[in-house]
Every structure is written in structure tokens, then in C-alpha cells.
């Protein structure tokens, strides 16, 4: 975090200021219940909802040589592209090249929650579940969030042996992963801060929604008998997902064409980015999930039975786990309506 901040401070001092505000932060009391980040998000809620582009989380991010990443589908392409520009620690190839060969197994970002639909042949990214400081931004406000990190063997993690010596000897000799993660952070932040149009890919988000709401609801971990009772109702969600995908593709094509011609006014860019920022926030519910008012994001939440694992379409999935078919149908209609809006 500090390395990326210093790099940007140097650039700003030389006149290369970001087009959007950057906030670098480290959080107190993470292990005590994400207290520091949550308090800050709640304090800054109105300004974050009005202006935040994305939140980028780094947690246990340099404890090995295996790269992994997770985050909302709308930003995954941007993360993968950024990894092409940074060299893999201890190697001559890019992080992307190493990652796409199936080497990225470690790191908290990869352990937190495997993607319900692993894309091929691009390297897989996980879904954000819980257990880290993105919760206030992503689960509470619906702000698009991502996470990256290098992991590995870490039997000393959170033990009396969790020391600088262990890290320097076994985790990251030479601090090469630390340096690579700092460079990657600077690149990702640069892309988010300086792109004419914020690099969300809502076609990808729509495609992913279609997978999540398929007749099998991969990753939902619910009884097939219960799922069978709402398959027809899921059609509304898959239809909305298809419409989002199609709209996203039309927007991407129009954006690329307009930017290539250089015919986009400042006011149009401002209005476009303002509307883009609201898309995923609309997929939150002010009242939150049933019994969990803090969890407002209807795409993903931390599993209520496991604070680290993710659960897809949590309103629907939790209703089915509770054998409450009527509630599951209401949740399905609610989600489809928010997607149409």
C-alpha cells in the first residue's frame, strides 16, 4: 500500500496527477470484526455512494509466490489486463503468463471463494465472500471491489511463529512478491483513476449473472428438491441477465467507437461515468438480507454459516436453505426487478 502511494506521490509532485481522487488506507481492528474499515465506510457512506469508483483490497497479499485474485465480474477483465504489465516475482514472464498456466493457487484472494463458473482459458478469479475489509464497500454499499495477492505455504499464519524471520525465510525471500504487489497496485489504481470511461464490463457481469441463476445455481449449496421448486421463477433473473449482457456489449462497442474517434465531450463522459457507478449499487437492498441487515449486496455475501466463504445470490440461496419457497420466489422477483431498473 505504501509503495503504491509513494509512487503516486512522486508522480503527482512531477505534475502527473490522477484524474480521479485516490485514497490509500490501512485499517485498524480488522481481526476484531473489520471494525476500522466498517466505521470509516459508515462515516463516509454518502460520499462513497455518490462518487466511489471501486475498492481495491490487499490482505495477506505477499506471503508466497502463487498469485490469485478475486472480485466483481465487472472488473475482472481490467485486473487480468493489469497483470500483463507487471513481472512475476522470481521469473522473467508477466504475472498474467504465470497465472494463466495454472500456477495461481495461493493467497487469501484465491482461498476466500472459488468462482461459480471458472472462465477458460483466461486465469480464474474468485468471488468476494467475507472476512476482509472489502465487506463495508462491497457487501454493505455495493461498490465494485477487487482483491489480489501472492500466497503460499503459511502454516505459521496467525501463530506465535508469524514473524519477519518466517516471512523472509519461507514466505517472500527478498521481498519480491511485496514489490510485485506494490507495482500491480499502482497499475490497477492508475487504470481506475485515469480511464476516460471507468473500465467496468457489464456484459461480463450479465453473463456471470446468467450462470449464477442457471437451473443448477452453481455454488449455492442447496437441496436440489428446493431448487426445482423455483426453477421457473429463475427465468426472470436469467432474462434480466441476458438483457444486461446485451446492453453491456452495445455500450462497450459504442464506447470504444466514440473514444477512438475522439468525439466525446467532457460533460458526456461525466454523465456516463456517473451512471455507470450506480449500476452495481442498484443491486443492493437498503433493508439488507433477511436477518442480516448489514449484508445489502444481492449478488454475493459471506456465507452466514462461514464468515469467509462466499454465497451467490444470497437472498434466494438462504431462503432455499431455510426451506422457505415463498420467500425464495419473492427474492427472485425482487432481484429481477432491480436488474431491470
Q: How much is the radius of gyration in Å?
A: 20 Å
Strand content: 5-15%
Q: What gap, in angstroms, lies between the N and C termini?
A: 36 Å
Give the structural class.
Answer: mainly alpha
The largest pleated sheet is described as: 3 strands, mixed
Strand order in the sheet with the most strands? 1-3-2
Helix content: 40-55%
Mean pLDDT: 90
How many extended strands? 5
Order of helices and strands: HHHEEHHHHEHHHHHHEEHH
Tertiary shape: globular
Number of helices: 15
Q: Show unreliable segments.
A: none
Question: Your description of this structure?
Answer:
With 341 residues, the protein is mainly alpha-helical. 50% of the residues lie in helices and 8% in strands. It contains 15 helices and 5 strands. It has a 3-stranded mixed sheet. Helix 14 (314-321) runs antiparallel to helix 15. The mean pLDDT is 90.
Amino acid at each position: 500500500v505504501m509503495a503504491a502511494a509513494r509512487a503516486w506521490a512522486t508522480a503527482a509532485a512531477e505534475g502527473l496527477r490522477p484524474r480521479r481522487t485516490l485514497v490509500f488506507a490501512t485499517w485498524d481492528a480488522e481481526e476484531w470484526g473489520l471494525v476500522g474499515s466498517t466505521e470509516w465506510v459508515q462515516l463516509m457512506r454518502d460520499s462513497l455512494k455518490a462518487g466511489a469508483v471501486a475498492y481495491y483490497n490487499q490482505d495477506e497479499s505477499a506471503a508466497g509466490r502463487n498469485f490469485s485474485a478475486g472480485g466483481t465480474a465487472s472488473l475482472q477483465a481490467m485486473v487480468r489486463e493489469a497483470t500483463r504489465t507487471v513481472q512475476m516475482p522470481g521469473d522473467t514472464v508477466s504475472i498474467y503468463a504465470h497465472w494463466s498456466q495454472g500456477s495461481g493457487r495461493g493467497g487469501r484472494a484465491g482461498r476466500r471463494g472459488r468462482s461459480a463458473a471458472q472462465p477458460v482459458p483466461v486465469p480464474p478469479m474468485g468471488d468476494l465472500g467475507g472476512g476482509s475489509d472489502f465487506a463495508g464497500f462491497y457487501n454493505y454499499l455495493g461498490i465494485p471491489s477487487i482483491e489480489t495477492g501472492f500466497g503460499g505455504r503459511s502454516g505459521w499464519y496467525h501463530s506465535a511463529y508469524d514473524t519477519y524471520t518466517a516471512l523472509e525465510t519461507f514466505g517472500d525471500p527478498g521481498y519480491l512478491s511485496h514489490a510485485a504487489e506494490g507495482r500491480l497496485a499502482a497499475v490497477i489504481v492508475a487504470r481506475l483513476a485515469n480511464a476516460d470511461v471507468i473500465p467496468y464490463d457489464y456484459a461480463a457481469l450479465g453473463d456471470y449473472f446468467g450462470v449464477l441463476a442457471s437451473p443448477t445455481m452453481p455454488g449455492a449449496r442447496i437441496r436440489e428438491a428446493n431448487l426445482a421448486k423455483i426453477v421457473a421463477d429463475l427465468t426472470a433473473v436469467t432474462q434480466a441477465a441476458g438483457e444486461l449482457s446485451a446492453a453491456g456489449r452495445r455500450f462497450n462497442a459504442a464506447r470504444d467507437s466514440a473514444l477512438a474517434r475522439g468525439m466525446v465531450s467532457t460533460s458526456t463522459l461525466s454523465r456516463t461515468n456517473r451512471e455507470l457507478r450506480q449500476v452495481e449499487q442498484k443491486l443492493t437492498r437498503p433493508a439488507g438480507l433477511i436477518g442480516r441487515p448489514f449484508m445489502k449486496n444481492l449478488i454475493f455475501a459471506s456465507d452466514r454459516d462461514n464468515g469467509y466463504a462466499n454465497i451467490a445470490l444470497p437472498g434466494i440461496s438462504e431462503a432455499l436453505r431455510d426451506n422457505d419457497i415463498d420467500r425464495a420466489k419473492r427474492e427472485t422477483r425482487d432481484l429481477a426487478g432491480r436488474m431491470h431498473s
